[in-house]
Amino acid sequence: MRDPYSILGVPKTASEKDIKSAFRKLAKQFHPDQNKDNPKAKESFAEANAAYEILGDKTKRRQFDNGEIDAEGKERFQGFEGFGGGQPFGNARGGMGDMGNMGGMGGAEDILSQMFGGAAFGGGPSGMGGQRRGTQSRPPKGEDRKISLTVHLKDLAAGKAPIRLGPDRTVSVTIPPEPTDGQIVRLKGQGHEGPAGRGDVLITLSISDHPDYRREGSNLRTHVPVDLKTAVLGGKIRVPTLSGAVALNIPPWSNSGSVFRLRGKGLPNRAGGRGDILAVAAVSLPEDPDEELIELMKQRTET
Question: What is the mean pLDDT of residues 218-242?
Answer without folding.
Answer: 94
